[in-house]
């Protein structure tokens, strides 16, 4: 996450992971929420940079980006896990 420190990264990751968990109606624990939020933010920031879209700075925008990225990761995981089960 850009523009925030390590502690704020963990807090934003936890919040973003929890929000994504609620949106996607999945059941995960606190550690997985933190991981999803942080990795989701990294993935979504990478996608946005590849598209030459730079979101405004600040922790609120990073939280929005992290939620979108975490939802994307949950969606992709469900697609992969669904194919494996079939």
Automatic annotation (TrEMBL):
Source superkingdom: Bacteria
Membrane-spanning ranges: 6-23, 30-47, 59-80
Family: Belongs to the UPF0410 family.
Main location: membrane
Membrane topology: Multi-pass membrane protein
Keywords: Cell membrane, Membrane, Transmembrane, Transmembrane helix
Gene Ontology CC annotations of this record: plasma membrane
Listed name of the protein: Membrane protein
Pfam families in UniProt: Transgly_assoc (PF04226)
Cellular compartment(s): Cell membrane
Keyword field contains Iron: no
InterPro entries in the record: Transgly_assoc
Signal peptide stretch: none
């Amino acid at each position: 996450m850009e523009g925030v420190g390590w502690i704020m990264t963990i807090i934003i990751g936890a919040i973003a992971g929890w929000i994504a968990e609620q949106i996607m109606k999945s059941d995960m624990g606190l550690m997985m929420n933190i991981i999803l939020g942080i990795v989701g933010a990294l993935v979504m920031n990478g996608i946005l940079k590849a598209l030459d879209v730079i979101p405004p700075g600040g922790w609120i925008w990073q939280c929005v980006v992290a939620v979108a990225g975490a939802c994307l990761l949950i969606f992709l995981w469900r697609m992969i896990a669904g194919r494996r089960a079939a």
